[in-house]
Amino acid sequence: MSHILDIKTGGESLKEAEKALIMIHGRGGSAQDILSLSQHLNVKDYALLAPQATNGTWYPFSFIAPVEQNEPWLSSAIETIGKTVQTALDAGIRAENIYFFGFSQGACLTLEFLARNAQKFGGAAAIIGGVIGEKINRENYKGDFVQTPIFLGTSNPDFHVPVERVYATANILKEMNAEVTEKVYANFGHSINQEEIELANELIFK
């Protein structure tokens, strides 16, 4: 199965905006759900782009399952994020003015896409996620973030995302010259908290 490109939009029009925020929903969520979160972020003058996963999920199994079990959905999902980025670039928005926000499965997908395509972006907030695969394949990750700010927030424990993978992801991003801030909340549960929103605004959408 591959995803059908379906990008929901909000905020400023791509023609008018100087900045774009790409929002990636979680498993069982929707583009509209994650777009509604933007009202809590300092992104009033951004164009908002949220691709919709076909059948509501980006890939079928856990993000720490063997990669081949999640194919061909995973490769198609990564390609969908690439096409969403290209949509912003084609509208004249520079890469350093493209931002990302992902939650859960969407955070994993955001981080995997960024680590495979590191360059100077505006910034990213990934809540409860890490790079994808049973084992981390460091050879997949290339490029230089040129100090792109990236915020990782998570709960420990989290039923879906082991905190060790969040730390490992943070280390990879730092090696690739990202400005990483990580915050682990004890027993918070699988959701986004107010402080994570505030930190995203302070560190990324400033």
Strand content: 15-25%
Number of domains: 1
Helix count, per DSSP?
5
What integer is the average pLDDT?
Answer: 97
Low-confidence stretches: none
Q: What oligomeric arrangement do these chains adopt?
A: single chain
Global structural class = alpha/beta
CA-based shape: globular
CATH architecture: 3-Layer(aba) Sandwich
Radius of gyration: 15 Å
Query: CATH top level?
Result: Alpha Beta
> How many strands appear in the DSSP assignment?
7
The profile of the biggest β sheet is: 7 strands, mixed
CATH superfamily: Alpha/Beta hydrolase fold, catalytic domain
End-to-end C-alpha gap: 38 Å
Helical fraction equals 25-40%
- Order of helix and strand elements from N to C terminus: EEHEHEHEEHEH
Description of the molecule:
α2 crosses α3. The protein is α/β, with parallel strands linked by helices. A 7-stranded mixed sheet has the order 1-3-2-4-5-6-7, with helices on both faces. The protein is built from 5 helices and 7 strands. The longest helix is centred in the middle third of the chain and has 18 residues, at 73-90. It has a single domain (7-204), classed as 3-Layer(aba) Sandwich (Rossmann fold), CATH 3.40.50. The mean pLDDT is 97.
Keywords:
alpha/beta; about 30% helix; Rossmann fold; single chain
Question: What is the topological layout?
Answer:
Elements: E1 7-11, E2 19-24, H1 31-36, E3 46-51, H2 73-90, E4 98-103, H3 105-116, E5 123-127, E6 149-156, H4 163-175, E7 179-186, H5 194-203
Parallel strand pairs: 2-3, 2-4, 4-5, 5-6, 6-7
Antiparallel strand pairs: 1-3
